Amino acid sequence: MKKFISAVLAVGVVIMVSAQNPLVTHVYTADPTARVFNDNLYVYPSGDCVPPEGVDMPRFCMPGYRIFRLDGGATWTDLGPVLDQNEVPWGKKNSFAMWAPDCIGKDGKYYYYYPAEPLDGSAFRRIGVGVSDSPEGPFVWETNYIDGVSGIDPGLLLDDDNKAYLFFGGGHELFVAPLKENMKEIAAPPILVEHLPAGYKEGSFPFKHDGKYYITFAHTFPEEGYTIGYAMGDHPMGPYVYQGKIMDNISQGTNHHSVQKYQDRWILFYHWWDVSGYNKLRSMRADYLEFKKDGTIRKVVPSLRGIGVPGVGELIQVDRCNDKRGCRTAFHEADGVKGWMVCETEPNSMVRFDRVNFDGAVKVQARVACGQRFGHFEVRIDNEWGKMIAKFPAEFTGGWTAWKTIETDLLETVSGTHNIYVLFKPDWGGRKLVNLDWLKLIE
Q1: pTM here?
Q2: How far out from the chain centre does Cα 327 lie?
Q3: First-last CA distance in the chain
Q4: For position 145, which CATH number holds?
Q5: Which of 254, 272, 289 is the last residue of a domain?
Q6: Among residues 60, 73, 118, 116, which one has the least CA distance to residue 256?
Q7: What is the pLDDT of residue 12?
Q8: How confident is the model over 92-144, as pLDDT tens digits?
C-alpha cells in the first residue's frame, strides 16, 4: 500500500509519496519527462483522469499537468498543478487533451512546452510555452502558440553550444527545428526526421551521450503495438540511423518515455497501468538503462523494483521486490490508498529488495496484518543467510485486513547500502505468517 503525507504550504498542497514502481499512485500520471535541474531530479508528466460525468471521452481524458521532484533516495514530492487545460491562453476550453509536455533550462530560465488543441482550429494540436525563474514554476504562459509548429509531444534538446532544438510530431512523421535564443520561436522551418521505420510514431525525446545524438520515440508495429524505439546521429538535425527498440510493448497499450542521467546512472522513464487495470489511466514508472560499448542501448525490461535507494524515514515497498519465493504479491486498497502487499507467506518464504541505505538507522518499522500469532519474520542483509539485523514476532492485528505498524530495534548498527531479505517463519503447522505492506528505517 502506498502511503502519502500532505503538508499545506503557502503556495498550495505538497504531497510526499514514497514508492518504487510505479513512482506515484495517488494520481494517474503518464508521458513522464524527466529532467535534472540544480542536482534535483524532476518529472513533468501529463495526467489521466476518469472522465467527469457528462463528458464523453472515448480516448484519454487529460485535463492538465503536475510537477514531481525526487527528495531523499526514493520519495517523490508532488509539487502540485502547473497548468490546467482552461488556463491555456490560445487553447480550446474543456478539451481534456493536454498531452505530453517537456521542460528545459537555459541561462537561468526554465521553459515549459506543451501541446493543446487551438481555439482557432488551425491544426490538430499546437505547441505553447511558458517561462519561469524556477523549475517548479510558476510559469508565465505565452499568449499564442509557437508559430510554424504543428503537432504533439514536444521534446527539447539543449546542446553543448547552448543551442536548443525542438522535436515534435505524431502520426507517421517526426520533425525537428532549431529554436531562437528566446526559446519561444523557431529559427528555421522544421525538417522531417528521415530514415525512421514505417508505422505510427510519437513522443520524440532527444538526448546526447558520448558525443552522439539520440532521438527516441514511441513506435507501433502492426503485430505488437506501442514500443519505444531509437535512432542515433552525429548532429541534432540528423541524419539519424534507426537502431531498434529500447522497450517492448507492455500489455497492448501505449507507452511514452524520456531518458535522463541522474547520479551517474541513466534512467528510462515510461508508463504502465498496473494501478488502475485500465490502459487509459496510467502511472509513471522508471528503470535503469544501460549502453553497450558501441553506444547502442540494451533493451530495458520493466521491473517492480524500479530506481532509487530508500533510506531513513522512507518507505521500503517490499512488495516491489527483486525476487521472492513461497509467497505472493497482491493489489489492495485501504483508506483510499492504492498499492500492493506481500501475502500468502508460507514457511521459509522470502522476499528480496535491493539497495537500501542504512546510514543513521537504529530501528525498523513494519506495516503488517495478521490473523494469528504464531511465528516471526526476519530481516537479513546481503544474502538470505546473511546477518540478521531485525526480528519481528507475528502479532495478531485483528485479521488479515487489519493493518498495524510495529517496530523493533536493529540488532546491530548497519551502515551503507545493502540488499535486504525478509524471511517468514511461521511456527510448525502454520500455513502463512503475515501480510506485509512495507518496512521503514527509523533514526
Answers
A1: 0.95
A2: 27
A3: 23
A4: 2.115.10.20
A5: 289
A6: 60
A7: 47
A8: 999 999 999 999 999 999 999 999 999 999 999 999 999 999 999 999 999 99
Backbone angles phi, psi at 85, to 5 degrees: -55, -35
Pair (208, 334) in one structural domain: no
| Angle of CA points 109, 127, 147, to nearest 5° | 95
**Weakest mean pLDDT among 11-25, 148-162, 183-197, 301-315:** 11-25
Catalytic site positions: 31, 202
Q: Is residue 378 part of a domain?
A: yes
Average pLDDT across the chain, whole number: 94
Identify whether residues 167 and 46 lie together within a single domain: yes
Detail the DSSP E strand segments found in 49-108: 64-71, 75-84, 102-106
- What domain range is 205 assigned to? 4-289
Q: What CATH number does residue 387 fall under?
A: 2.60.120.260
Of the two residues 422 and 20, the one the predictor is more confident about is 422
- Residue 253 CA from chain centroid, whole number: 17
Q: Indicate whether 413 belongs to any domain.
A: yes
Give yes or no: residues 232 and 152 share one domain: yes
Q: Which helix (H) or strand (E) holds 342?
A: strand 337-343
Q: How far is CA 388 from CA 260, 364, 378, 410, in A?
A: 36, 13, 7, 9
User: Is there a single domain that holds both residue 164 and residue 66?
Assistant: yes
Backbone angles phi, psi at 147, to 5 degrees: -65, 140
**389 and 284, same structural domain?**
no
Specify burial of residue 292 (Cβ count, 10 A radius: 0-12, 13-18, 19+): exposed
